[in-house]
Specification:
This protein has 344 residues and is of the alpha/beta class. It is 55% helix and 13% strand. The chain is built from 13 helices and eight strands. Strands 1, 2, 3, 4, 5 and 6 form a six-stranded mixed β-sheet that branches. β7 and β8 form a beta hairpin. The longest helix has 30 residues, at 135-164.
């Protein structure tokens, strides 16, 4: 999660304690700041029992706010536990804390130093509360990421099979085994997709979101599940431009003085899973939706490289999906891009 929007009520938070927690796959390192003084680092294991012990410790500190980095999935259970216990928690982009450490001119990098930096960040920077997703939304994300992981494995297995079939020396038993691996992966993907759809069908809001997403040509059920697993976990009050930032699809300019002028690129500073979930739908949409295809051709004709044009489609799809979910309206490709009469 990225630290983008400031809630005006949150900006008035004036805590007496600030805690920084460096999250690792196996360990949690805590540093507490009070009256500009930092405590000695304390280490907890990243297990349910020790997370509960850490939460109980922080609950006892009056007016504490906690700052941690978004570290894959390892921070998530702790963030949920802190939120549910009533502790104010903020989850920031690792790049934010990395650049903040540079400002503090910290030369060393250890877990304790990182926890120290996060405590300082909580004390000096505006507080932005982490938004806890609903349990069903969290479950959708678990399904979507697992399906994505299996799909990646299936693609690798298909490439491996292609390499094996390139030579006549490969034993038939090896080819059968490689094909069996692909079949089994597809069965697992299908089974998880069915389970995800059953979960979504139990919640009218999720079911409506699925219906809206598959109204876009290029987004089928599996792609819709992937997008729901990422987009529905974003804070609900974000604008479409902030969605673009969360996805890392915002342009990154690089100009300095008269001599340094590099081409703009996407920042890739956000959630790479959103970009991955949008990529194949964007490719499919530009093939099957005439308005999206016309937009792609317009960009290429104006000097954009094909990959840049695809990124632009992904960015416009983010805008469209944001508006669709906000206004509860299906996709309107005429609003995506208007085809000129000469083209028609």
């Amino acid at each position: 999660m990225m630290n983008i929007q400031l809630n005006t009520n949150d900006s008035e938070v004036n805590p007496s304690h600030q805690a920084g927690i460096d999250v690792g796959a196996e360990e949690l390192v805590l540093v507490v700041r009070k009256n500009s003084k930092l405590s000695n680092p304390q280490t907890f294991t990243n297990t349910r029992t020790d997370r509960a012990r850490l939460v109980n410790k922080l609950v006892k500190l009056p007016g504490v706010i906690v700052c941690m980095e978004a570290t894959g999935i390892y921070h998530f259970d702790l963030a949920v536990a802190l939120h549910d216990a009533g502790v104010l928690v903020m989850v920031i982009n690792p790049k934010s804390s990395h650049n903040f450490a540079k400002v503090l001119m910290k030369n060393s990098k250890t877990d304790a130093v990182d926890a120290n930096t996060l405590a300082e960040y909580a004390a000096r920077m505006d507080f932005v509360a982490w938004t806890r997703p609903s349990n069903e939304t969290i479950a959708v994300r678990c399904f979507s990421r697992r399906i994505t992981a299996l799909t990646t494995q299936k693609s690798a297995a298909k490439n491996h099979l292609h390499a094996l079939t390139a030579t006549q020396e490969t034993p038939k038993a090896v080819l059968r085994d490689a094909k069996l691996a692909i079949t089994q992966l597809q069965k697992r993907i299908d089974r998880l997709t069915i389970e995800a759809l059953l979960l979504i069908g139990k919640h009218s809001k999720l079911e409506r979101t699925l219906t809206l997403l598959i109204s876009i040509k290029g987004i089928a059920q599996t792609s819709a599940i992937s997008l729901m697993g990422e987009l529905l976990l974003l804070p609900p009050d974000l604008t479409h431009r902030e969605w673009v930032k969360f996805a890392g699809l915002d342009p990154k300019a690089f100009d300095s003085g008269k001599s340094v002028h590099k081409k703009s690129r996407i920042s890739k500073a956000g959630n790479r899973n959103i970009r991955a979930a949008l990529y194949m739908p964007a490719l499919s949409a530009k093939q099957h939706d005439p308005h999206v295809k016309a937009y792609f051709q317009h960009l290429v004709a104006n000097g954009k490289k094909p990959l840049q044009a695809v990124c632009a489609i992904m960015r416009k799809l983010i805008h469209a999906i944001h508006g669709m979910l906000k206004n509860d309206e299906p996709f309107d490709n005429t609003r995506f891009y208007k085809i000129s009469e000469s083209v028609e």
